[in-house]
Each structure stands twice: as structure tokens, then as C-alpha cells.
Design a protein that fits this description.
With 246 residues, the protein is an alpha/beta fold. It has two domains: 145 residues, Rossmann fold (3-Layer(aba) Sandwich), CATH 3.40.50.300; 64 residues, no CATH class. Helix content is 39%, strand content 25%. Helix 3 packs across helix 4, helix 3 runs parallel beside helix 5 and helix 4 packs across helix 5. The longest helix has 16 residues. The chain is globular. The termini are far apart. The site of adenosine-5'-triphosphate has 12 residues, from strand 2 and helix 1. The site of magnesium ion has 3 residues, from helix 1.
Length: 246
């Protein structure tokens, strides 16, 4: 069953067509990858799915209901949650208080929100840092915090915008099983990712965006050898040149 469907969505910013007639399907219970060169429109598509940006055309369908005009907080209530590419925790708050911000979506009571935050902190490997100021976290810690804040809203769909960016190979290796465990707990995941090792490791299917358009979609291994994808990353004629040198 398709949990989320994006139907022919377009978004213009002045003269720039950031997303151009893109369609996407996210089946329930999967990890789906969204890849593409810089400026391809990936984050804009996330903003459209989560309601921060309104599309100029097209529809966003959640569990067979059209949610295109729904506000971000309403979508969060409908169990769609996102992380942000630029991670900005509230510096004056502790790690647990930052996570609790997500928990307040469904738990108005502070002690309940803090209890849920503590559970989530444990789940993402931040239990020991719960009482620390969020500003004291390393980059890897901030990425985990961003993941935790989104998880604390108790999502059914989690949109991860480059949670591995800026991490070193061993930090990436540590976080991959965490993402898989979140899916195994029943959360469907759509992830934007440049780290291909993570994409091939985690994703059942991948959609490739280039200049706002979907140019390929399928299993990760199949995507990596698709000439249109190779050209989008490496330039026109690259696929033929690689063939010639093979
Ligand atoms: N609010 C905005 N106003 C104007 N232009 C925008 C806005 N948001 C995005 N754009 C433009 O839309 C295009 C797509 O940007 P977007 O951030 O969605 O790409 P991306 O695929 O996430 O790139 P990256 O891999 O670098 O994160 C870019 O040309 C960008 O400059
Ligand atoms: Mg982006």
C-alpha cells in the first residue's frame, strides 16, 4: 500500500523551476531514497510533502486523502515528520528539552513529554547526553538530536534530509543500523542522501531527481548504472565515455 503519493508536483521560485512535474510513491513500511545532484529540488520536494512550501501545481496524497493545502502542523498531527538539512537545535535548552519539543505535539503535560523524550534519547543513543546543553553536542550528536526530535512526534512517515551529511565513515556506519531499526519499529522512511553506501545499504527503492524532474526510479543497484543518472551526476556524454573505457 502506498502511504504517500506525490502527483506531478511543480514549484517555481521566480524564474527557477525547483521541482518540475515530479511524482513519487512511498510504500508503507519501506525505506525509500531520494537522490540527485545539488540543487535538484530534493529539499523543496520535502518542504512540499511536509507543507512548508505550497506547490504551484500537482497534489500530495497521504493515505488516499489529498493533503496539498494542509498546514505543516496539521501534517505533523497526521504523523508526517521531517528533519532539517541545516540542524539548529535550541542552544539554551538541554538535549532532552530539545527532544521534548517534538513530544509536545501529542503530550501537553511536561513530565509526560520529558518521559517520552528520555525514551527517544535512549533509542537514538543520546541517553548519556540528555542533561547536556544541545550546543555542546558534536555534529554527529546534533544529527541524532534532529532525528530524535522528529521521532518524538511519533511519526508514521519520517522524512530525513541528509542526516548523514558531515559525518565521518565510522559515524555513518554507527547510524545506519539506527535508521534500519526505526523502520523495523514500523516507521516508513523517505530519505534524501548523498552517501551512496548508505542508500544501497538501506533503501529498497530510490527515486532520482535532476533539475526538478524525476529521471529514474527503481532498485539502488539498477539506478547506479542507469545512463540518465550517470549523466545527471557526471555531465552529458559521461555514460558513453564510461562504456568506451570499460
Ligand atoms: N525559497 C527559495 N527561494 C528561491 N529559490 C529557491 C528556494 N528554495 C530553493 N530554491 C532553489 O530551488 C532549487 C532547488 O533547491 P533545493 O534546495 O530543493 O535542492 P536540493 O536538491 O535539496 O539541493 P542540495 O543537494 O544542495 O541540498 C535551487 O536552484 C535553489 O536555489
Ligand atoms: Mg537539499
Amino acid at each position: 500500500m502506498s502511504l504517500l503519493r506525490v502527483d506531478a508536483v511543480t514549484r517555481r521560485f521566480g524564474g527557477v523551476v525547483a521541482v518540475d512535474g515530479a511524482s513519487l510513491n512511498v510504500p508503507k513500511g519501506t525505506i525509500t531514497g531520494l537522490i540527485g545532484p545539488n540543487g535538484a529540488g530534493k529539499t523543496t520536494l520535502f518542504a512540499i510533502i511536509s507543507g512548508f512550501v505550497t506547490p504551484s501545481a500537482g497534489r500530495v496524497v497521504w493515505k488516499d486523502a489529498d493533503i496539498t493545502s494542509m498546514k505543516p502542523h496539521q501534517r505533523a498531527r497526521q504523523c508526517i515528520s521531517r528533519t532539517f538539512q541545516i540542524v539548529q537545535p535550541f542552544a539554551g535548552l538541554t538535549v532532552l528539552e530539545n527532544i521534548a519539543i517534538g513530544a509536545y505535539l501529542r503530550h501537553a503535560d511536561r513530565s509526560e513529554a520529558m518521559r517520552l523524550a528520555a525514551d527517544v534519547a535512549k533509542r537514538v543513543g543520546l541517553a548519556a547526553q540528555g542533561g547536556q546543553q544541545a550546543s555542546a553536542l558534536t555534529v554527529a550528536g546534533r544529527k541524532r538530536l534532529e532525528l530524535a526530535r522528529a521521532l518524538a512526534t511519533e511519526p508514521e512517515l519520517l522524512l530525513l534530509d541528509e542526516v548523514l551529511a558531515g559525518l565521518n565513515p565510522s559515524e555513518i556506519r554507527d547510524i545506519i543500523p539506527l535508521i534500519r531499526a526505526i523502520r523495523d519499529d514500523g516507521v516508513t522512511i523517505l530519505m534524501i542522501e548523498h552517501v551512496m553506501q548508505a542508500v544501497t545499504n538501506l533503501c529498497e527503492q530510490v527515486t532520482v531527481l535532476a533539475q526538478g524532474r524525476v529521471i529514474a526510479s527503481g532498485a539502488p543497484r539498477q539506478i547506479c548504472t542507469d545512463p540518465a543518472v550517470v549523466e545527471a551526476y557526471l555531465g552529458r556524454g559521461a555514460a558513453a565515455r564510461m562504456q568506451a573505457h570499460a
